[in-house]
Every structure is written in C-alpha cells, then in structure tokens.
Amino acid sequence: MSRLLPKNEHSIDRVVRFGIGAAVLSLTFLGPHTPWGLVGLIPLVTALVGSCPVYTLTGLSTRTAKQTR
User: Fold this and answer.
1) Which residue did the predictor score with more confidence, 5 or 49?
2) 65, CA 20 to 30 Å: which among 12, 28, 31, 45?
3) Structural domain tally of the chain?
C-alpha cells in the first residue's frame, strides 16, 4: 500500500491543506450554500492521507529527509 500512496507531504503542508479544505468545505453549509464547496474535500483528504497525487505524478515531495523514515 505504501508504494501506491507514498507519503510526500510535510507536516506544515498537511496543516495548511487541512485548513484550506475545511474552510472551502464550510462554504457548502455556511455562506453561499453551493455544492462547489465540496471541492474542499480534495485538500482535506490529501491532508489526512499525507499523500498528494499531483506530487506523486510530478515526482515532488515536501517531506524532509528526517520524515521519510
């Protein structure tokens, strides 16, 4: 499973993604009440999993050498 979803997000990256995802998702319930707020699920899920598919496809990683152990 680790080969399928490699951990490639730094902890700060994950916190920022979680905050942005929660804020955008809240637009579904507060504010304009549009389904576009569901787009917030994408950064929210990637933050919880710790792996970004775009990072995997491009070979990028924000993790430090310490975190890869």
Assistant:
1) 49
2) 45
3) 1
Residue 18 class from Cβ within 10 Å (0-12 exposed, 13-18 middle, 19+ buried)?
middle
pLDDT band at 49 (very low <50, low <70, confident <90, very high): very high
CA gap 40, 32 in Å, rounded: 14
Report if residue 66 sits inside a domain. no
What is the crossing angle of helices 11-29 and 41-49, to 10°?
Answer: 150
Does residue 69 fall inside a structural domain?
A: no
pLDDT band at 20 (very low <50, low <70, confident <90, very high): very high
